[in-house]
Structures are given as structure tokens and as C-alpha cells.
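Researcher: I'd like a structural prediction for the single chain below. Treat it as a standalone chain; there are no partners to consider.
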Amino acid sequence: MRRLGRGPGFRLVAGAVVLGFVAAVAGCNGNGPTSSSGGAGSGGASGSGGVSGSGGASASAAAGGQAGGGDVGGSAAGLAQLPGQTFYVSDQTSAARQLVDLRGQGRTAEADTLLRIAAQPSSQWLGDQAAKGIAEQVSRRAAAADRTAVFVAYNIPHRDCGQYSAGGAADAASYRSWITGLAEALGDRRAWVVLEPDAVAHTLDACGVKGAAAAERYGLLSFAVQELKKRPQVKVYLDAGNPGWAQDPSAMAEALRKSGVATADGFAVNVSNFYATDRNAAYGAELSAALGGKPFVIDTSRNGNGPLGGDAWCNPPGRALGEPPTASTGRPGVDAYLWIKNPGESDGECGRGEPRAGEFWLPYALGLARGGA
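Model: Treating it as a single chain, here is the predicted structure.
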């Protein structure tokens, strides 16, 4: 089952080059696979499965920047860094750009509602050859603000089982080169990286990543962890699906071991999905116990009302923003609540007139913001 939120909804939008830097990418995570909200582009992956998945990122989002073009240059959004907040608030997210448009049109009430999303830290998805420039630019801006940037690396070969967020590096050698470049771009700056949504979970479901293909994937993930951890201020969290997707936590724990979780800082759950925080915390605690106490992070971007149920992973109605991003969760073993999926970015074209995966969808964003009020 795919993860909610990213799955078919994750799009990888090509980023624009500004002053030598390329626009940002959004992410994924759904019911089975991850549906992204910030995807390689800006939306992230969206899932194709049910609530159990995470959704996935769209290929166009992962390749480019946030729907508006990435974290480059100035903005009229006027967003400030939050006092006491660990993570970086970007004024170049899809929500921030839409906020500027609404204010310019005099739509003050809608702008005030959207500010509940735009004023919070969210993640930068990375999914193509532009990743190195994007990662360097965003991490530098975060460092200048004395904050920590959050990235999602989403470029594994055979990504998303060739479904909604299909794509990724051409082969193992290309991926190693890509991840090495990403690590180099982060340098000595603080950053958290959520590593390859859906990649581990897809070795355990019906995706077909088995045998030699699974062994190669585990090897690439281990290599990625090692490369990123060469940077002393980079924290790495391997994606571990969600409580509705991982039917056998012991199998997930073993797959995470093969993927280098021992060297990583921990793992991530609920990427681009909607499961309530309590349920994610219980799922994460079970995995943590099997992994010698490894900590984890939870994607709370859209889980304020929990999942709709059944297979409603694609832009389900009536959802709400979850807990704001924080590194002070008050829960033992939970390193942070993060908005890994960028709220308001579509999970995909679900037959109801929605935009493509990863594209910002104002009515849905406002619904999330109002539902979490």
C-alpha cells in the first residue's frame, strides 16, 4: 500500500536557475509509497494506495523547486523566523508565493488563513541534477538565519515502482555520484535529511523490488547514509513507511538494518500521510525497540484529523494541519515533528479536477489550514 499524500501526487518540477542557483524541489509520500507535499519539486510524492501508503511525489516536482521556483532571491511574503524554532522558514515555498499573490489581490482573509501554512518550516525536496545547487543555496540561507534546513532526498533508481512518482537516478553509479554531490553541497552547515521516501517499504510490498534489486537498493541507501554522515552537522533519517503500510514491523526493522540505519540518526514515519500522531508514535516506538532505541521523526503536516479511511489517500477532504514542526516533542524517542509534505500541494489528479501531483492547490491548502484551526 502506498503512503498517503505523495504517491501519485508527487511531482518533480524543474527548477529555474536564478543567479546560478536552481529552484527548489518538492517531495512525496502516500499510503503505500509516499505522497509528497514538497516533493523533489515542491509538492512531493503522492501515494497511490490507500491510507496505509504515504503518497508520492510527481516527477516534475522532484526535479525542480518549490512550485514557485525554489528558495532563491527575495520575496514579498515578509515571513520571519519563529523565535525558539529549530527549523528554517523559507519565503520561497509554494504557500509563501501564493500568500504574496493573495495579498496583492486584496484577499486578506484567505491570506491570513494561508499564513498558518506559510509561516511554518517545511521541507525542501531534492530529486534531480539540480539538487546540489539547491541544497547549497537553501542550507546557506538557513545558516544565515541560524536555523536548520530540512531536505528530502528522493532520487533512488526505479523510484516509486515506476508509478506516479516514477524516475530517479538512471543507475547505481549515477545515484552514488548524485548523493555524494548532495553531501558536498551541505558542507559544514546544519541540515536534516529524510532519505528516500518509500524506498525501503517498496522492498517489502508488491512493488517487485526483490532479490538482487532489493540488495542493490539497500546498498545504495547504506552508501547514502555514509556519505551524508561524513558531514558532521547533517542528521539523516531513513524513511520507514507508516503504520498502515508496514504490515510487519519486524520485516521493516530488518530492511532498515540492511539500509544502514545503524549509521543514520534514526528513521522517519508517516511521510506525506495522514495517520494521527499517537498512532505514528506507537508504530515508531515498536520499530525503535527493534532497532536498539533508534529515534525517529514524524510527518505531522496533514494529520490533524487523522486519515479519512479506506483507500482515501489522494487529496482526501476534511483533513487538517497537524502539530507544528518542532524539535521539542515531549515524546521519548521522537526527535521532531516535521512538515515533510508541503501542505497544500496536490497528491495528484484524482478525478475531481485536482492539479497534478506537487502543484499547489489553494482550496485544499485553505481547507487544511481551517481544519486545523
